[in-house]
Design goal:
alpha/beta; two-stranded antiparallel ribbon; 12 helices
């Protein structure tokens, strides 16, 4: 019997399509396999040490006795009220603000080293992002064997922290990058806590993503291409932590993700929108995970709409429940990273 030519053509087409899908899936798996890992952490880990100061305590301390009920105000607004209600000692509010930030810097200098940070550093992670201003992470890492000194700093920024990078290497020639997103206590002007500073930072992030960001390094003015162009030309260069939200798997821990953190909510939202844009659809393949011990359904739903996977690990009833929580988290990371 002579085979039907139409049937043969259909079979060939199905076979070709299947091979194409197999190749595409293989390519996708390879991309996932080689994706870098990033940990973004907040003040939750510092709270394991008795010397820690919570954001609420910090804001109360800088009120200088001018107490007011701030239960319904985000931290950014509390800071602005504290600053703007200070007596007019200087002719420009920026001088008053520098004094407030100096006070914050002094209050955070006494934070102790932490075992959790040491364990984090040992993981298969290339980038560490933090909203903390202190150096508890760096001080903890310096206790480990084989860390090369000095730790090199690469930011030339005086106020914002789009490129606030410290490069840490060890004698095994492994290099890890530590980014402080909200400034650092050694440079008080960079400490980001008020609404004005947050909004200015969003402007910088927006410029970086759109290709309008310009800076000077070693006397040379540099213009960063847009995120779209970097995908098009495969030209990501680690100039800023902003890129990691599009190129690295990010694991968010020890961070309440309060809605006052408008810069990070903004970039998560922008990433989610770009994933659905015509120019970048199918190109943003990194994963972002948010780890917590509990979360309300509204925030969980918002995370999921932004394509963030929420992983809940309930606390035990033990006295050291938070230490146990981070120990379990580290063991999880050892398995999956």
């Amino acid at each position: 019997m002579t085979p039907n030519k139409g049937l043969i053509a259909i079979v060939k087409e199905i076979t070709t399509t299947a091979k194409g899908l197999e190749a595409s899936n293989k390519s996708s798996k390879q991309k996932r396999t080689h994706m870098n890992n990033t940990i973004l952490f907040g003040n939750g880990i510092n709270r394991l040490t008795p010397e820690n100061i919570s954001w609420g305590q910090l804001l109360d301390l800088i009120k200088d006795g001018r107490r007011f009920n701030d239960a319904n105000l985000p931290n950014t607004m509390i800071y602005e009220r504290v600053l703007l209600e200070r007596p007019d000692i200087h002719e420009d509010v920026s001088y008053d603000e520098f004094e407030v930030k100096n006070r914050i810097s002094e209050l955070l200098k006494s934070l102790e080293k932490n075992k959790v940070y040491k364990e984090f550093f040992k993981l298969n992670v290339q980038n560490y992002l933090t909203t903390n201003y202190d150096y508890a992470f760096i001080d903890s890492v310096l206790d480990l064997d084989g860390i090369n000194l000095p730790i090199h700093e690469y930011s030339t920024e005086d106020v914002y922290s789009i490129r606030r990078l410290k490069r840490i290497s060890n004698q095994e020639e492994k290099i890890k990058l530590f980014w402080q997103l909200h400034g650092e206590i050694r440079k008080p002007a960079t400490i980001m806590l008020g609404l004005d500073h947050y909004c200015g930072s969003i402007g910088k992030i927006d410029s970086y993503i759109k290709g309008w960001y310009r800076y000077t390094k070693d006397g040379i003015t540099k213009d960063e291409p847009s995120i779209e162009k970097k995908f098009e030309n495969n030209s990501f260069n680690n100039s800023s932590w902003v890129e990691l939200f599009f190129t690295s798997d990010i694991h968010i821990v020890g961070f309440s993700f309060d809605f006052s953190e408008i810069d990070l909510w903004w970039i998560l939202n922008k990433r989610a929108r770009l994933k659905k844009s015509k120019s970048l659809r199918g190109k943003i393949n990194n994963k972002i995970f948010y780890y917590c011990d509990s979360i309300d359904e509204h925030k969980k739903g918002l995370f999921e709409s932004f394509d963030i996977e929420v992983i809940i690990d309930n606390l035990s009833n033990n006295d050291d429940k938070y230490t146990e929580y981070y120990s379990n988290l580290i063991n999880r990371f050892k398995r999956i990273l």
